[in-house]
Each structure stands twice: as C-alpha cells, then as structure tokens.
Design a protein that fits this description.
The complex is a heterodimer.
Chain A (H helix, E strand, L loop, with lengths): L3 E7 L3 E8 L4 E8 L4 H12 L6 E7 L2 H7 L6 E6 L5 H4 L24 E4 L2 E2 L5 E3 L3 H14 L3 E5 L8 H13 L4 E4 H4 L5 H31 L6 E4 L5 E2 L4 H4 L10 H12 L5 E6 L4 E7 L2 E2 L1 E2 L14 E2 L2 E3 L5 E5 L5 E7 L18 H7 L6 E2 L4 E2 L2 H16 L3 H23 L11 E5 L3 H12 L3 E4 L6 H7 L3 E12 L5 H21 L7 E11 L6 E5 L6 H16 L8 E12 L20 E7 L2 E9 L8 E3 L2 E5 L2 E5 L3 E5 L5 E5 L6
Parallel strand pairs in A: 1-4, 4-11, 5-6, 5-9, 9-10, 13-23, 23-24, 30-32
Antiparallel strand pairs in A: 1-2, 2-3, 7-8, 11-12, 13-14, 14-15, 14-18, 16-17, 19-20, 21-22, 24-35, 25-28, 26-27, 26-28, 29-30, 31-34, 32-33, 34-35
Helix pairs in contact in A: 2-7, 4-5, 9-14, 10-11, 10-12, 11-12, 12-13
Chain B lengths: L10 H25 L3 H4 L3 E7 L4 E4 L11 H12 L8 E4 L11 E10 L2 E11 L28 E5 L2 E2 L1 H8 L5 H29 L1 H24 L4 E9 L10 E10 L2 E5 L15 H13 L9 H4 L2 E4 L18 H18 L13 E8 L7 E7 L29 H7 L2 E8 L15 E7 L2 E9 L20 E5 L7 E4 L1 E7 L4 E5 L14 H9 L5 H8 L3 E5 L4 E4 L1 H18 L4 H9 L5 H8 L12 H14 L6
Classes of the chains: A alpha+beta, B alpha+beta.
C-alpha cells in the first residue's frame, strides 16, 4: 500500500524534501544542502528522512537544473536551423534593453551563438501558403554539416511556420533519419503562435533544455525505480502544474523555472481550504519576496516571461512578481538623502548585523529585532541574535544621519520595506481592477509573517493567513499539483465575421490533442478537466484579454460580453462602437491527481496564556506584548494583538487592534479591525 | 553625504510618496500599452508623467522614450498658459505643439488636471506617438517640407473633455485630419483613461496622507533629485569641454556637413551647455525646436548618471544656452518633424563630452535612428484599402572603455522602442520582408569595436500608387569612433528597380519616391563607432568575430591587421597567422596617417572603378562620396577628415 507523497524542491542552497503521510495527513520536512549532482541530494535526503520508495504514491519534483544550465550557459552543443535571411532573430529580439539608461549594462547573450545558426532556403507566406518547399539536396548538405559539427540538439525555426508547419516538419523528419540521436525541436510544435522572436526563442530554449532535463529525468526516474518507486516522476513546470518525462520533448522549456510556481500553488490551496477564492500570496525570504495572485480560484498567468531578459519563454506561466525585499535587505541613505530599502541584501554571510558574522549594514531583520518583533534568537535558539549590533548598525548608518532615535529609525526602515512591497503588490493586482477588500493575504516564507499584517493594512486587505509551516509552504505547493498542459492556436478574426461552428471545431481539435497528451501520461478521461478561453481585443488594439468560454462554443455574443466586462474591470472603460476581434484560442488541460488531506482538528475556543511578555514597538509606542510559542496554540485559540508568535521557521507579528484565531487547519487567521481604508 | 532639510516630511512618508509617484506613472504606462491602437505607441513610443500644479515634472515612467523626457513639463505649462483660469475639474486637454516645447506633431499629449476639493493640485500627462497626423505623406514625415504646412496637423492646446463632457466635435476634427481616424480616437481614449489612473491614485494618496503632505512631497521629490545631481556634479572636475557633431547636409545647399556645437562647462554643482555656433535652420524637417533640444541634453547627461531618477529637480542644476533660429532652436513655422536627427546629434555630442570627463563610462557614437515609410493601396484585399507601412531598425551602439558596444539595440532616441515582428508585418502589409539579419562589418573597428547594425530587405508585392520615403542621416557624417576607434558604416537605402541591372542608391533622406510591384529595397543600420586603436584589438577576439561572421575575413585584415587562415570550412573554424598579422599591423600603422591625406578625387575614382569599397573610403581614406554614383563630396570629405584626425588619428602611436 502506497501512502506517502513526496515533493522534492531543489534550490541553490538547500534541497527540501517534503513528505506527506496520507494516513494521518502529517507533514514532515527534511532540508539538506544541495549537491553538485542534484540527484545525490535527492537520494541522500530520502535516506535521511527514512522514506521507502515503495511506499510512495506520488513523487513530484521542482528543480533548478534547467535554470542553472541556462544562466551558466552550460548547454549542450545546439544548432539553430532557420530560414535563409533570418539568421539572427534570437539575437535581435525586440532590440530593447532591460535597463534603458545604463549604456554599460548588457543584455544576456542568445543561447545559440551565431556560428551555430545555419540557414536553408524555404518560404511559407503569412496566409500559410507554401511558397517554396525545402530542397532535398540542400537538406542533405545541411545534414552533412550538422553531423560533422556533432550537435546534440537542433531547433528548426522557420518564418511563418505557425501558419503552416509543413517545411519545419519535413526537415525535422529528414534530419531525424540521418541524425537519429539528436534531439530536434521545431518552433511550431513547441509554440504554434505568431511572432517569430517569441516562438523561435521558446523553441530554442526547448531545444537546449531537452537533453539537459531529459537525461536528468531519465537518471532520476531510474534511480527512483531501482529503489522501488512505481509511477512517473512528476516535474513541476512554470505553468503551475506538473508534467511527466514523457512530454519533455515538446515542453522542456516549461521546466526553465521548475519550482517557481510552487509558492503560488500553495497560496491558492491555502486560500481554498480557508474559504477564500481570492488570495494574494506573499512569500518573503532572506533576499527577495515572491508575490502571486489567485482570483476566483484561478492563479493569474502571464505570457511575458523569461529567465533572462530578451530570451522569452512564451508558454503561459504563473505570474510571479519578485521584489528585491527580504529579511536581509539592506537599508541605506542615497546621495539625495532618501531612506532606501534593498534591493541589496546582506545574504546569509555576513548576514544582518545582529548575526554577529561581521555584517555592519542595517537590515530589515536588524530593525525587526530592535523593535522587539523578533526575539533574541532564530531557528528555535539555533541562531542567537545580538541586539546591540543591530542598534549600532542602525544608529550609525541611519538614525544619526537622519537625526532620529534608533527605534524611530528602525520603524522607518520597516515601513519603507513594507511600502515598497505594497507598491509592487498593487501593481500586479489592485491596479488591474481587483478590489483588495475581496482578498485575503497569505503570508509565508521565513519573513512573510513578520510583515504580512502591515502589508495588508497598507493594501486594505482585511484578512491575513499564516499557514502552519510558513518556511516550507512552497514545498507543500509541490505536493498539491495537477498535470497541466496549455495548448493554443492562433486565429485572428473579427467577432462580427466569426463563425461559432468553426471556432468550435478548432477547440475540438485542441481537445483531441490535449486528451491524447494526458492519456500518454496515464490520466483517466474522468480526471481530465479541459478549460477553454479566447484571447480577444478591440480590432486595432495590440494586446488582448483572456476570456473564459464554455463548451460547446455556440455564442459569439457571450464571448464579446465577457471581453467587455473584463475590459471594464481592468481598464475602467469600454468603447461602445468599436469592433472586437478574436486573436487566439486557448485550452488548458488538467489531469487531476488525487489530493492529500491536511490534518484537521476541531476548534476549541480558548484564550491561551502567553508564554512570555516582551516590549514591542508599534507606531512609535511601546506595548507590553504577549509572546506565544506556536506549538502551544491549538485550533480555536483566540489572540488579541499586540502579540508575537514564535516558531522554528518563522515569526508572526499581530499588531495592536488586530485579532487572530487558529483555524481547524492550524492556520493563524488574522483579522484587521481598524484598518486604514485609504 | 547630504541629508534632507530639517523641516521636511518624515523619511518614511517621503520615501513612500516618492515611490508612489513613480508607481503611478508605471501604472499609466502599463495601461497605455495594453489598450493603445497605434503600433508606434504599442512599440513604446510614448511617455507618461505626473506634474505639480505649476507643471513641473514630478515623476516619469521608467521605460519612457528619451526624446520625450525634457518636453513634458513644457507642454503642461503651455496648456496652463493658454487656458489660465479656465481649467476645471472634468477637463482634459490635448497638445502636440513643438513650438511650445513639444517634439513634433506626431507626439500627442493628453493632459488631465487633478483637483482636490476644487483646488488644482497636479497634472497627469500621457504622451504617445500617433501613427499619422495628416500632412503630405503617410506617417507625417515629409523630408521635402521646409515649413510645418506639409507636415501635418498642429494642435495647440485644446479641450477634448470639458467639465466631464466629451467634446466629440474637437476630437473628431483632429482624428478626421489624419489617415487613420479610428486608431487616433482609440489612442486618445486609451491615453485619457491612463491619465485618469493617475488622478485616482493621487486622490487615494491625498485621502490617506492629507493633501498638504502630498503637496509637500511634490516639492521634496524635486529637491531630492536636485541634490542627487548636484552631488554627482560636485564629484566631477571643474572645467570646459567642447565638441561638434554633424548632420549630413542642408538639401537646399550643394553639400557640406551641418554642425551642432556644444560647450559644456562644469562649475561646482552646476552644468552649463552652450550650443552657440550651431548651424542655422535648414530647409528640411531635420530641425529641432527648443524643447526637443533641451530633451537631448538631458537624455545625453542621464546616460552618464543612469541611477538618478528624472524630474524637474534635474532641470534646476543646469542651464542651456541656445542662440535663436538655429537647427537646435527652430521657431514657427520651420519644419521640425525630423527633430530626432539633431536630437540624436546632441545626445551623441553629450556622450563625447562626458566620455572625456568620465572616461570609465566612455561611449563612442551610436548608429542613427531611421524610419522607412511606405504607403499606397493594398490590392491584395478586395476593398483595396490604403495602407501605411512604417518600419524602423535597431543598430549598434558605440564601443566602450573595456568592452564592445551594444549590438542591435534601439537607438539613443529611445532604447525602449521595440522592433516590430516581421510575421506581424507580413500579415498587415503588401510588402514582403526578404531578409533581416545582422550586417557583417557594420561595426566601427576599435580595440573595443562598436556593436553591430542590421540589414533588412523587402519587396513590394501587391500595391498601387505606392510611394516610399526614408528618414535617416549619417550617410555622410558617418558614425564615428573615439580614442583612436574608426567609423562604422554609412546609412542609406538601395532600390532595385524593375528592369535595371544595378541598385540605385537613394540616400538616407528622401520622400515620396513612386515604387511598383516587384521592386525591392534594402537598407542597413550602422554599427557603433569603435573605441581605441583597432590594431590593438586582441587577435583572438577578431578571430571569434570572423567565426561568427560579425566581421569578414577581408576586413579582419584591413581594419584590424589580423590575418586568419581557414581551418575547416564546414565547422567555420580559423586560426591566426601570427607572423603575417605582425607584418600587416606594422604596415597599416606605418601608412595609415598618410592615407588620410591622399588625393580624394583619386580615391573616389577607385571607388567608382570598384577597386575600393565603402568601408575602405570611410575607414582608411576618410573620403565621402555619393555611394551610388561615386561622385566626390569635397567639402564634406574635408570636414570628415578633420573629424577623423581629431577623434581617431591623434590617438594612434
């Protein structure tokens, strides 16, 4: 009987092994240092945690293998074969820079060097007409050169192939016969979408990553299998789902940031069990904060996504906004005398000044310590904090130059950090027409719960949820995934001229493909959830909005009304006489995996006795504040702010006027009563 | 380190509001980009700002176009001057007037006054480049225009909303004077709605922090940026530096480069830019009015202080001296739609000045911005609609101190200006792109070479009554190097006529040339100028460039004196012939100064005879001629050689 679910999330520093026991819902986390060969840490961690793989029903995995390979350009020898005359699409990109003004800052280079970009004569027109097929003798010569150069992977990217992939497919088959061991990707198979740069770039990322993640997945799978694991390894992809190694050929690019979506998935899940379909996830660590949003139980996605600027990966990806603000972010005064916070971080070495490891820059952690919001140690006593060092850093670097006392300076540091984070959250959520009062904020990561309530106050979000293990909540997200594919087809037509029958036919085609892919991965038809949507815009506009539509598709008017409602919500206006255009049909195909049940306990409403008291400063005033240990708080406990809750991996701050309770899942749910309705 | 004044806002409120102002303009930008109609706007030819009640800029978008940065406050002040007391809640204004501090008619600003309890406290502005503003040619750039009457519609300040009522008569009057009324009305609305975002957000801040706090912050964010810039200037040595950059020509004159002169003086914590000596206005659209000139100086300087945010505080730290009626101070009704040509010269000249003062950030000249416009009837569609194909290319930036220049990057006019996808163009226009690639050898040679430019070619497929126009420059005032680096490549367009065996060279600036189906054109952008003596470039770097075909085998020898031998053609691998390289480098070093004094007529003759090519002429002999006919431009050559000696030769051993 298999009763364990295992999620392994490999990060740069640590590999987290998260084990959920289906029998009692208990969750166990093992953290071990990552290793040069990431699989070593996986196996070591499993041993350390005492997991028997024959007991495991589901093994899901987030890995930085692909991300690191890209960033370090540690990629297999790969060729790009493209239309003659268009050799440099991936280098030209959209010709902009990430930093517009700094002429000494360069964009990252293309993943395939120019010498490895070969061309061949062919032509497909924009309407799909095959103007010129690939000439076989040229293909033969190309194959000879490719073979001699000993490429491990090839991306075939032809102009207008989204409209007709025949030339790409013909050449792929031709080359594959002559070069059977080379991994060949074509742009239209990877992403059948108009706009050459995005399609080529995605296909190139797919091509260079296929051997990397393919080998990795095969090795991991066989290691796990030899130890008794029976099913497929589930690989977490950037779209917020998982895939099996069987679909890597077309989807390797989606693993370019495996694991990034884990926090967003956890955020969505915690919102669901607490009864909030709309949640903002704030995952704050030592150096940065990841913000994600779930609206009406759907995680927001973006097509504007990349690991490195200028090299887009245009699969739908969970929209995560990363801000350079974390516990270790350094507060500083700039040359204009303004108090700034981040994006530079003291990291873990030397770390914040209060770690006593030689750091002398004041960080958010130092400020929280001075204010009493952090206790004198972290990790349950594993790391002592020296408040005098924190005071010294804040005094010399901030308080004295600004002519204020240390406590005021410390609070100023935290307030600036909170304001920066709130601005970023506003940009991804509220500024797009979402009302913050309809949301709850889930605070997690090592530092999230220290700042969560203040952020919610700033944003007018009425409720904050702190999950039971904030430090490992992302890893939990890894366990809650479904198999997910996103398919699309480009279709540009004005709605007044669109034929619903034709659109229905296109959707049916996408669904056939989706069902076939999910079936390959062992998903039963009953577990498949297929969701249709259409990207629409006013005719003449450049960007489109994604509008959900029902199955079967019968009414263009319904789709147009959906578009208008969304345009109104996001942009606060509609244009009465303007015509609306369809741009793209999308299908998200989800294979539901059975979910674990988290442990629940019946609430017992009590007001627990504090474990200690400490002075904590809020808004310039010192409050004698109740200090609790989290393990002593059981379901139903009620806490009135001000209070601070300590646990191994996190600290929760409940300011004055806020009221918290522990729910049946042992989340701390904090209601903000007298919030600022600014 | 200086610290903020004693009686100001507390540091948290200040920092929160400072960031909030920036966040507001970023939200505006996001909305404009998501809702706009003009593809020019979509590709980021726009800018947004928040201004105080006096029209001083408080914050601008992080991705704003350089060319707009110093003009937004002028436009706001022009509206205030025009309407005086007649500015009320619910009003929305439109202006595109270059003679009142704007850039050109294409850049249309929506201005919305923001009131708190009946008091005007601020303005928001959304400025976008609309695809057409009427005038004699599609896209509204007619290089043959000498005054504004051929350029398009001048919009001096008007209300398009009055006390909450949409003035559709005014809006339609404007839209109906353009070639694409629907898109113009769509953009007008998109920009108005973006301006309303700023209003909402600012009022939220007022409710939260009090209006007096917000107004106080308006002052303090300007003081703050002023302090930051003054701090930077104080770190630089006092002194004066001068430079000259050039436009190609005045089409009403025979030939000869058109100078723009700048003398920069740094006095403690302020900078004075004196443009005295710049050429008088010329008989084309390549003139700049004062606002755009101001913007050029600000943008050039900002490139050297990239971290300092832009607002009116910057403007307090510098003064700009501009004599009347020059190419950098045109007044009504002189044509200015091509203002970007002098604008970029001002920017590059400012690069040259600061490269002397801050050598660690030195930057050789960048390629010149270029626009291709063609319009006519599209007979591939049943209704034969009028089409406007409007295209621009990225190019190379100048070599830098310690590394090569940026390749295929948008021009200094606006680094955020995105390239258009060819597959999008293929669907929309009866013009087919035949090739679009990096242009081998386009980078100016140097110890650190310039970045690379592009080449794009296309064919007219199914058109009727179609005309072709091209706006560019530096066909003759070729992109230059610094510290011994060499020039890059002349700009210009080549047209393959039906029935002709050779391409015609149409130059870098022309308009309304009739074209027919089957005719094709190609044009390239220059790379950036080189930095440092190319004979000192690491031969391995030259070999890598040849393997990537950034540099040809031939020019590796001619420009760098590096002699390579092919190892394996299939693998495109080479090796360095060390001995031959040494000999070649010595030969070039010995002779190159003399080459710059050889009889230009003889050199031009060899060009006509195809014994020398364009690169030989500009890089080795400093000779400029009509690249099509090979006719020598004597005066231009003399000026170009002078420039080459100054920027390159004096640094050679």
């Amino acid at each position: 009987m298999t009763h364990l679910r295992v999620a392994v999330d490999i990060g740069g520093t640590f590999t987290d092994i998260c084990i959920l026991d289906d029998r009692d819902g208990s969750l166990e986390i093992t953290k071990i240092p990552s290793t040069t060969d990431p699989i070593d840490a996986v196996l070591e961690g499993l041993d350390k945690a005492g997991v028997k793989l024959e007991d495991v029903s589901l093994f899901s995995h987030g890995t930085t293998v692909a991300t690191n390979a890209l960033i370090e350009r540690n990629l297999p020898h790969t060729a790009l074969v493209t239309t003659e005359g268009f050799r440099d699409i991936i280098e030209i990109g959209n010709a902009t820079k990430e930093d517009l003004w700094d002429a000494y800052k360069d964009n990252p280079s293309a993943y395939i060097r120019r010498r490895d970009r070969l061309t061949i004569s062919e032509c497909v027109l924009a309407d799909g007409k095959l103007e010129k097929p690939v000439n076989e003798s040229q293909a033969q010569e190309l194959a000879r050169v490719l073979k001699k150069r000993d490429y491990k992977a090839i991306a075939i990217c032809f102009m207008n192939s989204y409209a007709n992939p025949a030339n790409e497919l013909w050449l792929k088959e031709y080359l594959q016969n002559l070069l059977p061991s080379v991994a060949i990707s074509t742009s239209a198979e990877v992403l059948p979408e108009i706009f050459e740069h995005e399609r080529f770039s995605t296909a190139v990322v797919n091509a260079v990553l296929r051997p990397v993640v393919g080998h990795y997945a095969v090795r991991l799978q066989s290691n796990l299998k030899s130890r008794g694991y029976q099913s497929d390894v589930l690989l977490l992809h950037s779209g917020g789902g998982v895939m099996t190694p069987k679909t890597i050929d077309f989807q390797a690019a989606r693993l370019a940031s495996s694991g990034i979506a884990a926090g967003a998935i956890a955020n969505k899940y915690i919102g669901e069990i607490c009864g909030y379909p709309n949640v903002l996830g704030v995952d704050m660590g030592g150096t940065s904060t990841d913000v994600s949003m779930t609206f009406e139980s759907t995680m927001t996605t973006t097509r504007d996504w990349y690991i490195e600027y200028g090299q887009p990966i245009s699969f739908p990806s969970i929209d995560i906004k990363t801000i350079g603000a974390g516990g270790g972010s350094i507060a500083w005064l700039d040359e204009g005398g303004a108090l700034r916070n981040g994006p530079h971080s003291a990291g873990s070495n030397p770390g914040p000044a209060c770690y006593g490891l030689g750091g002398d820059e004041p960080t958010n952690t130092d400020a929280n310590l001075v204010l009493g919001r952090l206790g004198n140690d972290l990790v349950g006593g594993g790391l002592a904090l020296d408040v005098s060092l924190a005071v010294r850093a804040i005094e010399s670097k901030i308080a004295e130059p600004l002519g204020m006392d240390v406590q005021t300076a410390a609070e100023a540091i935290i307030n600036v950090a909170n304001a920066n984070m709130a601005d970023a959250i506003r940009l991804v959520s509220i500024s797009k027409g979402y009302d913050p009062r309809d949301f709850a904020l889930v605070a997690f990561g090592g530092a999230g719960a220290l700042h969560g309530v203040a952020l919610a106050q700033e944003l007018s979000v009425p409720t904050v949820i702190v999950p039971p293990h904030p430090g490992v909540t992302s890893a939990l997200g890894c366990l809650l995934v479904d198999i997910r594919h996103d398919l699309l087809t480009t279709l540009v037509v004005e709605t007044s001229k669109a034929d619903p029958k034709m659109i229905e036919e296109e959707f049916v085609k996408l669904e056939k493909e989706a069902i076939s892919r999910l079936s390959t991965e062992g998903v039963e038809r009953i577990d498949m959830v297929l969701k249709r949507s259409i990207d629409m815009r006013y005719a003449g506009q450049w960007r489109s909005l994604n509008v959900s539509v029902s199955q079967p598709f019968t009414s263009i008017d319904d789709a147009v009304n959906g578009f208008l409602a969304q345009h109104m919500r996001e942009y606060k206006y509609v244009r009465d006489e303007a015509s609306v255009e369809i741009f793209r049909l999308n299908l998200s195909a989800v294979g539901i995996t059975p979910k674990a049940e988290l442990p629940q306990s019946a609430p017992n409403p009590i007001t627990p006795k504090p474990d200690a008291f400490r002075d904590v400063i809020f808004a310039g005033k010192t409050y004698p504040t109740s200090i609790f240990k989290r393990q002593n708080l059981s379901s139903g406990a009620q806490i009135n702010g001000p209070a601070v809750v300590h646990q191994l991996d996190s600290t929760t701050v409940i300011p004055p006027d806020a009221v918290a309770s522990i729910d049946k899942f042992e989340n701390i749910v904090i209601n903000i009563q007298r919030q600022d309705r600014g | 380190m200086s610290v903020r004044g004693e009686k100001g806002l507390d540091p948290v409120t200040f920092e929160v509001l400072r960031n909030a102002f920036v966040s507001i303009v970023d939200q505006m930008a996001e909305q404009v980009r998501r809702t706009c109609y003009s593809f020019v706007v979509y590709n980021r030819d726009f800018s947004n700002s928040l201004l105080d009640a006096e029209g001083n800029t408080l914050a601008q978008g992080k991705q704003d176009l350089s060319a707009h940065v110093g003009t937004l406050h002028y436009k706001c002040k022009a509206v205030m001057k025009e309407f005086g007391e007649d500015i009320e809640p619910g009003d929305v204004f439109l202006i595109n007037d270059p003679y009142a501090g704007g850039t050109h008619f294409s850049d249309n600003s929506i201005l919305l006054p923001i009131f708190f309890d009946e008091e005007l406290i601020a303005w928001s502005q959304a400025n976008g480049h609309w695809a057409d503003m009427g005038g004699s040619v599609p896209g509204s750039f007619d290089v043959s225009a000498a005054d504004m009457f051929k350029e398009g519609l001048r919009v001096t300040p008007v209300k398009i909303w009055r006390r909450g009522e949409y003035c559709s008569d005014v809006a339609k009057l404007i839209a109906n004077n353009t070639r694409d009324p629907n898109a113009i009305l769509g953009d007008m609305e998109a920009q108005t709605q973006a301006a309303r975002i700023a209003e909402r957000e600012l009022l939220r801040l007022c409710a939260k922090y009090s209006v007096s706090t917000v107004k106080r912050a308006f002052q303090e964010v300007q003081d703050y940026v002023e302090r930051a810039i003054r701090h930077r200037l104080r770190e630089l040595p006092n002194g004066s530096w001068s430079t000259t950059d050039y436009l190609d020509r005045d089409p009403s004159e025979k030939e000869g480069l058109i100078p723009i002169k700048i003398k920069l003086t740094i006095e403690d914590d302020r900078a004075i830019f004196d443009l005295t000596g710049s050429h008088s206005t010329i008989k084309t659209i390549y003139n700049s009015a004062y606002g755009a000139t101001f913007s050029g100086v600000i943008s050039g300087m900002k490139t050297f202080f990239p971290e300092v945010p832009l607002n009116a505080g910057v403007y307090r730290t510098l003064s700009i001296v501009v004599p009347d009626d020059t190419i950098v101070s045109a007044r009504w009704p002189v044509a200015v739609s091509g203002f970007v040509m002098p604008f970029e010269k001002i920017m590059n000249a400012t690069f040259a000045l600061f490269s002397k003062i801050m050598p660690e950030k030195a930057l050789a000249c960048a390629f010149n911005i270029e626009y291709l416009q063609t319009g006519g009837y599209d007979i591939s569609r049943q209704a034969k609609p009028f089409f406007m194909y409007y295209d621009w290319l990225a190019g190379g930036w100048g070599g830098r101190n310690g590394k090569d220049g940026l390749s295929v990057t948008a021009s200094p006019f606006g680094v955020g200006l995105m390239a258009q996808p060819i597959e999008g163009q293929d669907r929309l226009y009866p013009v087919r792109t035949d090739s679009f690639e990096i242009s081998t050898d386009s980078a100016g040679p140097g110890k650190w070479r310039g970045g690379l430019g592009l080449e794009k070619s296309g064919t007219f497929i199914e058109v009727e009554q179609c005309v072709l126009s091209y706006l560019c420059d530096r066909e003759r005032a070729v992109v230059w190097g610094i510290e011994g680096g060499l020039p890059a490549k002349p700009h210009g367009l080549w047209l393959q006529r039906n029935g002709s065996s050779e391409e015609d060279f149409l130059g870098a600036a022309f308009s309304d040339v009739p074209v027919s189906n089957g005719e094709s054109f190609r044009r390239g952008t220059s790379g950036g100028g080189g930095y440092g003596d190319p004979l000192k470039r690491d031969p391995i770097a030259v070999m890598e460039d040849v393997e990537d075909e950034y540099v040809s085998l031939e020019r590796a020898a001619k420009d760098y004196g590096v002699v390579l031998e092919l190892v394996d053609k299939d693998k495109a691998t080479y090796k360095i012939n060390e001995k031959a390289t040494k000999v070649e480098r010595q030969r070039i070093a010995k002779n190159r100064k003399d080459w710059l004094n050889e009889e230009p007529l003889e050199i031009a003759k060899k060009y006509r005879e195809k014994k020398l090519d364009m690169y030989d002429l500009i890089r080795q002999y400093g000779v400029i001629c009509d690249w099509g006919t090979g006719e020598l431009f004597e005066d231009t050559t003399a000026e170009f050689r002078k420039l080459l000696k100054e920027r390159a030769m004096q640094y050679w051993d």
